[in-house]
Amino acid sequence: MFFRPCSFCSHLDVGCPIQKTAGFPPPPNFPSSCLSCASIAIPENREHLDTHPSKPSRERHTLPTWYTSTLLARRLLHKSTVGHITTNFPSPITPDPIHHYNPPEMVSGLAVTLPEYIASCHPDGNPTFLGLHLGTTFKNAASGSNVSLSLDWWDHHASNTDVTLRDLSNSRMALPRAVLIGYLEPYPSPVDPETRVGLERCFLDAHPDARAWLPGREGAAHAGFWARLVVRQVFWVGGFGDRALIGWVNMTEWQGIREDGSVQGVGDGRGWGDVLLPGEIE
Asked: One Pfam match, by short name (predicted)?
């Protein structure tokens, strides 16, 4: 379990002790009270998980390197336009009648997962969000919850569920997925014009309908804001363990990978544009 809720925390007058788990800094643009109501326990290594069957497979597979796996993870982020976001409800919950936010007290401190629009607008692997102030995901993040973003390749690649035990290569479970863990960081408001134009172009390219709730748009359906997920850890599941790696990626590599290469000193010079996910055609 990644999230561990803080039991005693108040937005009014009781501070929640800052937990140092995994060395996460507090989200800089959110209220200072109750910044660590959900902490994340991250293992200090990224050993390959032993998921091999007890009996040897008839077919031998060559495992990719960790750098290749990280390239695939960055490509998965770039190709994804929707992800499932997990946050924790604050504890205790403070109702917001203006935005009709009144969760039952029994969910206080519990995790909730919701689908959200995302776009890969930054070269460093921090995905962009068009947050809505009334959204549960963004309310929880503003209350100090850490954020995890789950991505998968299941809906991008046709999968045959009628497979035999001898050949599971067409199973959805053989396809890549990843969890990005960090915190949400809003852009300064108002966003400078050059940055705003770039964000709108990138996000609307993935989600044309989001024009209806662009931040600052006159007559927008909801009040929104630009934010990014500051990714601190990434857990990668490349597929079955006899042919793919499973574990924690190197964050220096994650942040240093670009589409057409990598920053100096990172990897072997390849970028995420040099690899293909299952089913992609060159």
From this structure: CREG_beta-barrel
Asked, for residue 206, whether it belongs to a domain, the answer is yes
Ordered per-residue pLDDT tens for the chain, 282 residues: 333 333 333 333 333 433 333 444 545 444 433 333 344 444 444 444 444 444 444 556 789 999 999 999 999 999 999 999 999 999 998 887 776 778 899 999 999 999 999 999 999 999 999 999 889 999 999 999 999 999 999 776 655 555 454 556 667 778 899 999 999 999 998 899 999 999 999 999 999 999 999 998 887 777 889 999 999 999 999 988 778 899 999 999 999 999 999 999 999 999 999 999 988 887
* Structural domain includes residue 92: yes
Longest Cα–Cα distance of the chain, Å, equals 63
Q: Is residue 110 part of a domain?
A: yes
Which domain range does residue 93 map to? 59-162+170-274
Q: DSSP secondary-structure letter at 159?
A: -
Q: Any idea what the CATH number is for the domain that residue 176 is in? A: 2.30.110.10
For residue 256, being part of any structural domain is answered with yes
Closest CA to 224 of 140, 141, 130: 130
Residues 271, 258: Cα–Cα separation, whole Å: 5
SS3 62: coil
